[in-house]
Design goal:
- The chain has 85 residues and is mostly helical.
- The chain has 2 helices and no strands.
- 19% of the residues lie in helices and 0% in strands.
Length: 85
């Protein structure tokens, strides 16, 4: 499906407990990056990692796909696995 469409993963909150996880997923997902932070609640340490020195947003050219060996791992919950793309 990624070869036919550009994924659009809706907004995320940079200051959320999993803000870095969501930022990383969007960066490698090849999708637009939107944030829905409340006023004065942005985590700029997270957001700065999505922007290159020239001001462009770091974004993959094509949608990311998980590797076969990580497809059924719980990278967010098991404390051991890593999501590989």
């Amino acid at each position: 499906l990624g070869n036919l469409v550009t994924p659009d993963w809706d907004c995320f909150q940079s200051s959320h407990e999993f803000g870095m996880f969501h930022a990383t997923a969007r960066a490698v997902g090849g999708c637009p990056v939107y944030v829905s932070d409340r006023v004065n609640q942005s985590d700029f340490n997270v957001l700065k990692k999505l922007v290159l020195p020239d001001g462009t947003v770091f974004r993959a050219r094509l949608p990311g796909r998980p590797t076969r060996d990580s497809l059924f791992n719980d990278a967010q919950g098991d404390g051991v696995s890593a999501m590989k793309v």
